[in-house]
């Protein structure tokens, strides 16, 4: 869904509440030169988000240079789990920079050691080897590499198939993109690797058959034999819809992977660090994956990612053979440790669970009234509202964009969605959001949604 927001300031009604403030045209006139500069020097592909120039972001709020203030339902892109600019995270970054250890490559640094130790002790037993990287895509690439390395070791070179899911998103690099399940994003890859195979994701909405037998049937139809599978990778919940798989399905998948010596990889880049109302998303399934990939909310701020998992798999490659220039940047690692401690100390996982109940109840009630909502999915502080043409399952990306835009004009910020034709509105505020602000933002969302729906009805008449 290629649609860009206009950079011409548009007069919008004034908003002034406890948590929101919109007092200028949008984008605010003083931000326009900066937006134009970005537009001039950056690629067109960067134009996809609401044109709000972030001047300051704290907790669950974002301000532009004119002092307009939004309740943030984006967390950046699910980054700011501990809230934007948490003082503890800022302090940790400052202390690390003041130590004058900013980058060490693979040379040891203490910040990396401290974060790895803390992260590992919170992970399940035998899932405690960690490799720090820079982006989620990089972590996914590494997981794919480990799956195939392991596959070759235990089953020979035929054991190289990576099974993943339709509509999955694992990043934009070559391997991650092929593990993804959005065909439009793969059109540029002329020579698709036949070792990547996707099956339908058991979301219970677009794939009504959520049985594990259906997984087996689809694999067989794709000509895949269990012994040739090196790994199965899935987002713990699908980013494009916020849908989880059924628990029973995941438990059977776990057993199936064990039976075939295939590695089970949960991509926790979105789901990790409290987002879903549990510290780790895979806890919802009562399983332990062989490998997990992490990013986004790992620091609530700076770029850091990780792969974690079984020691025998993580240690397949010899010393010096897996590296990345910024592996475990000490500044990012310090931020990660501080963010994790905030999440634990301030009970943000439980807050996500409780606020999630409120959020999902309200969204379900809205869905019952609005035929433009096909499904609401998610747990904790992540929700996906699938916008459809009423009475069908056909995604309505234009409708979703109009709602995102209307919300922006009312002081509620979210990122414009990708996947399903841009038709899933994603709701993922920082985990520090409290009841009063959540209720206020839900009121705004409902108001915007109903207004956009009414506008379309008027046009249709
Ligand atoms: N995996 C998942 C589940 C993601 O949501 C994303 C990013 N949206 C990625 C991987 C890629 O992460 P990054 O953009 O940091 O490369």
Number of domains: 2
Give me the number of helical elements. Answer: 13
The tally of beta strands, per DSSP, is: 16
Class based on secondary structure composition and strand pairing: alpha/beta
Strand order in the largest sheet? 6-12-11-10-9-7-8
> What's the CATH first level of the largest domain?
Alpha Beta
Low-confidence stretches: none
CATH superfamily (homologous) name of the largest domain = Type I PLP-dependent aspartate aminotransferase-like (Major domain)
Bound molecules: 4'-deoxy-4'-aminopyridoxal-5'-phosphate
| Helix content, binned percent | 25-40%
What sort of overall outline do the alpha carbons produce when their principal axes are compared?
globular
> Beta fraction of the residues?
5-15%
User: How far is the N terminus from the C terminus?
Assistant: 26 Å
Work out the radius of gyration.
22 Å
List the secondary-structure elements in sequence, H or E.
Answer: EEHEEEHHHEHEHEHEHEEEHHHEEHEEH
What would CATH call the architecture of the largest domain?
Answer: 3-Layer(aba) Sandwich
Main β-sheet, in a few words?
Answer: 7 strands, mixed
Mean pLDDT: 96
Overview of this structure, please?
Helices cover 37% and strands 14% of the residues. The radius of gyration is 22 Å and the shape is globular. Helix 3 runs antiparallel to helix 10 and helix 12 (397-409) packs across helix 13 (435-460). It contains 13 helices and 16 strands. By secondary structure, the protein is an alpha/beta fold. It has helices at residues 32-41, 75-78, 87-98, 110-122, 136-155, 174-179, 212-221, 247-259, 311-314, 330-345, 348-369, 397-409, 435-460, and strands at 15-16, 21-22, 56-58, 61-63, 69-72, 129-133, 161-165, 196-199, 229-235, 263-267, 291-294, 305-309, 373-377, 383-387, 412-413, 424-427. The chain folds into 2 domains: 15-82 and 348-460, Alpha-Beta Complex (Aspartate Aminotransferase, domain 1), CATH 3.90.1150; 87-345, Aspartate Aminotransferase, domain 2. The longest helix is centred in the C-terminal third of the chain and has 26 residues, at 435-460. The strands form 4 sheets. A 7-stranded mixed beta sheet has the order 6-12-11-10-9-7-8, sandwiched between helices. A 4-stranded mixed beta sheet has the order 3-4-5-15. The mean pLDDT is 96. The site of 4'-deoxy-4'-aminopyridoxal-5'-phosphate has 13 residues, from helix 5.
